[in-house]
Design a protein that fits this description.
Layout (H helix, E strand, L loop, with lengths): L1 E4 L8 H10 L9 E3 L13 H7 L9 E2 L1 E2 L4 H14 L3 E6 L4 H5 L10 H13 L1 H4 L4 E6 L9 H9 L6 E3 L14 H10 L4 E4 L5 H10 L6 E4 L1 H5 L3 H9 L9 H18 L3 H15 L7 H9 L3 H14 L20
Helix pairs in contact: 1-12, 3-5, 12-13
Bound molecules: flavin mononucleotide (FMN).
Length: 343
């Protein structure tokens, strides 16, 4: 089973994925693919310079990256795909899940899911182009169930089934659910039994136990699993899941591994961002994912939230990493309060 790192815009950028791949670099611990956060295309259907730099193969050494585009314009998608093909990419991903108001308002991301005729026209145009028709490059889709109700999904899946999509990645929520509430696992089962394409299951897989429960519920194994918030929180999750799948004892994330990961991301924060306020904000955002892994973390969480300088923040995280201990089996959902950023 393939294990993928989900795209998280503003979190899993080029530096983040390189740092993850550098520290968790073994076949056991790495992600099989890193899906890059979505790119918007220019008016001329090209990729912005900053995104191009982030996606250059030499800036992502030794890892498989899948670029993702957020558009409802097949010509823009083709323009971007052609450029990405020229850069060496052999798979591109279409974002049909982004729930943000501005995106949905423009009928992109999850907003495109209500426009069935346009969606068919989009795929007709893209798959008629030699780039895709000749199999030069694969198109995978990352989708939600619909905008308002899971009942929308069967019709949407019927559309996907008409086209040679390489893999269907399903985040089984509707747009209005954003990232909260229970996922609709019954619809993952529906997709498994009705999709003509290999299925990648995504959504709320935060721990080995979550994966075990999902796999016990599904009628057969999906082709792939995708981990987002859970893998940001526990960067060792790929290794733990592979061990579980192989029936081996699971070696949990060590505090040393977490320290190396958090430290590398701190150094990255320092070199890339200017201004203490920005750096502090980025660190607070990241530590919101990690604090849940610690036993007796509540007092630390409060102090981290209140910290007003980077030095103060760092002295708290240093203490945590030196004297704290990790909760066995903890993950992103281990503490519901985790959903509130600590900033
Ligand atoms: C902060 C944030 C940013 C995200 N950015 C993207 C994105 O750029 N493209 C995308 O397809 N999904 C994006 N997602 C959705 C995730 O890829 C994933 O589908 C979702 O978090 C559910 O998986 P998880 O429960 O494992 O986190 C984002 C989610 C979050 C929380």
């Amino acid at each position: 089973m393939n294990l993928y790192f989900a795209p998280l815009e503003g979190v899993t950028d080029v530096n983040f994925r390189n740092i993850h791949a550098h520290i968790f670099h073994t076949p056991l611990s790495c992600a099989d693919k890193y899906f890059a956060p979505f790119l918007a295309l220019t008016q001329d259907h090209t990729i912005h310079d900053r995104d191009r730099r982030a996606l250059q193969i030499e800036n992502n050494p030794g890892i498989t990256v899948v670029p993702q585009m957020l558009t409802n314009d097949p010509h823009a998608f083709l323009g971007g795909s052609r450029e990405l093909f020229g850069m060496g990419y052999r798979e591109v991903n279409l974002n049909l899940g982004c729930p943000s108001g501005t995106v949905v308002g423009k009928k992109r991301g999850a907003g495109f899911l209500t426009e069935h005729d346009d969606l068919e026209r989009f795929f007709d145009t893209v798959f008629a182009d030699a780039l895709f028709a000749d199999g030069n490059i694969k198109l995978s889709v990352k989708t939600r169930l619909g905008m308002f109700s899971p009942d929308e999904f069967p019709d949407i899946l019927d559309i996907y089934n008409k086209y040679p999509i390489s893999e269907l990645i399903l985040h089984p929520r509707v747009r209005k659910e954003m990232y909260k509430g229970d996922v609709h696992t019954d619809m993952t089962i529906y997709a498994m039994t009705h999709s003509k394409h290999p299925l990648c299951a995504n959504g709320d897989l935060f721990t080995v136990e979550d994966v075990r429960i999902l796999l016990g519920t599904l009628p057969k194994s999906p082709a792939s699993l995708m981990f987002g918030r859970g893998a940001v929180s526990n960067p060792n999750l790929f290794s733990e899941v592979r061990q579980m799948l192989a029936g081996e004892p699971v070696t949990p994330l060590s505090i040393e591994q977490l320290g190396a990961f958090t430290e590398a991301l701190y150094e990255d924060t320092k070199t890339r961002l200017s201004g203490e306020r920005h750096m502090l904000f980025r660190q607070k955002e990241l530590w919101a994912y990690w604090i849940v892994l610690f036993a007796d973390a509540e007092p630390f969480r409060k102090r981290l939230r209140k910290a007003s300088t980077l030095t103060e923040f760092r002295s708290i995280t240093d203490t945590l990493l030196r004297t704290g201990s990790l909760l066995p089996g903890a993950g992103f959902a281990g503490n519901a309060k985790m959903n509130t950023p600590i900033s």
